[in-house]
Amino acid sequence: MTADRKILLIGAAAAIGVLAGGALFLTLQGGTDTSGCSNSAVAGGMDSFGTEFTLTRQDGQRVTSAEVFDRPSLLYFGYTFCPDVCPLDSARNAEAATLLEESGKEVQTVFVTVDPRRDTPEILADYTSLFSDDMIGLTGSDEEIAAVNKGWRNYYKANDEEDQEYYLVDHMTNTYLVMPGEQTVEFFSRDTPPEQMAETVACYMDAAT
Fold first, then answer.
1. What are the transmembrane regions (predicted)?
2. What is the pLDDT of residues 140-149, one digit of tens each?
């Protein structure tokens, strides 16, 4: 990792969160889901989120969605060059996972890039290590990343028309709870605190036992 990149990531982790561009088309509705763990729902139901995939992990290994989601997982779509939102959200997700682990519940965090051109496995390894030794980073071809994002209805767009090196990427900032069996059951907006996230995840885990 270059010195400039380290400075960027360290500064980003301390930055004040600003919502990244991108249209949020998840429609929040009142009500409670069948597990009693959430007070929100999404148009079409959470069953419509997710897809099978094969992507490249930060260690260079190709892995399937079944291999990734072998335990409750907090799934986030972002990119390593993101100056503010992604580092803060990744740190929040890692903190929620730590809170759950402290209460005896095993949860992992998963980071899927929306910028496969720059986010090589090596770059993802550097990035994920800043937040957790257990965070999984995933990349792939443009087509593979597009398919995964489509599966989770995630909007993203690279603003690279004028700059092919230091461009930013608009993207949604939801975190999804994916249970073993590749079932997406909940999502969290970026203003959800880690304590609330951990409480909700624990509820789903208890309901599944």
1. 7-28
2. 999 999 999 9
CB 74 within 8 A of CB 201: yes
- Domain 3-16+30-207 carries which CATH code? 3.40.30.10
pLDDT tens for 3-60 read: 455 444 544 444 433 333 333 333 333 333 435 787 556 666 787 899 999 999 999 9
* Residue 55, beta-bridge partner list: 63
Residue 5: how many CB atoms within 10 A of its CB?
14
Q: Calculate the alpha carbon distances from 35 to 10, 26, 74, 209 in Å.
A: 39, 20, 18, 12
* H-state helical runs in 48-193: 65-68, 85-102, 121-129, 142-151
What's the pTM value of the predicted model, to 2 decimals? Answer: 0.82
Q: Confidence band (pLDDT; 50, 70, 90) for 190?
A: very high
* H-type alpha helices, the chain: 3-13, 65-68, 85-102, 121-129, 142-151, 194-207
- Beta-carbon neighbour count of residue 37 at 10 Å? 19
Are 92 and 197 in contact, with CB atoms under 8 Å apart?
Answer: yes
